[in-house]
Write a structure and sequence with these properties.
Structural class: alpha/beta
Low-confidence stretches: none
CATH architecture of the largest domain: 3-Layer(aba) Sandwich
Strand content: 15-25%
Order of helices and strands: EHHEEEEEHEHEEHEHEEH
Number of helices: 7
Distance between the termini: 53 Å
Length: 279
Amino acid sequence: MAELRVYISVDMEGIGGIVEEKQVSSDEFGSGYRQEARELLTGEVNAAIEGALEGGATAVTVNENHSGRELILEKVHEIARVIQGNTKPLETLDTIDEGYDALFLVGIHAMSYTPRSVLAHTWWPGVTDAWRVNGKTIGEIGFNALLAGHYGVPLALVTSDDGGVAEAEELLDDVECVTVKWSRSHAAAVGVHPSEARRLVKEGAEKAVRELDRFKPFSLGTPVRFEIDFGKAAMADRVCIVKPYERIGPRTVAIQAETFEEAVRWSFVAEAIAGYLRD
């Protein structure tokens, strides 16, 4: 049987039951808020793994997107290869260039300024306000879909709140989506029981793998013009000290590149430079 490899990129804000910032980034690693979030996240990741395997996957890689210590490793499905830590070369999709058949975004969230969407933001709150690629505004869903698409990998599954699901469905021609909560505000949502969320994620993952032919690698064309709106004008000042960044607005910097992957690497540098001025 031919190998079928699934890559799972795991965020936190779109996991069922996670609605407040302190669940995501509490300074007290062992706090009740933080520990509950880790349990919820690990449960949905395992559901995605189990569904992928039942759908026909033979190998699964899981990449944690935040501090690199969201998953409770002892509880992660034993088949998974797990990527942890910070400053990964391709960040949320590190090693996607090794060759995969499908990308899953588990627990992803909507982009900045999405009305009522719980914990919506774009990349680095306080530093990155918005992204545009060839004139199209994207968030982290589009970012990951484009970077995976550069390597020929289709985005097959998105699990999120209703705001994130709507964003994915608007952006992509076809993608399997699972809604685990319905947002009421930036810090409130109506959600299903965790066991039901896991059931829905597992079913969605299995269907996504079984129907893999539905999905195509995503692109907005080449060459690529990648625009970044920073949180402060001073951030754009600092970034534009060096090339290849072009100042096109008070807080906006543009990057011109031949491919999305090249633009992404330059964006990582720009955001790292701008991050020194974050409050």
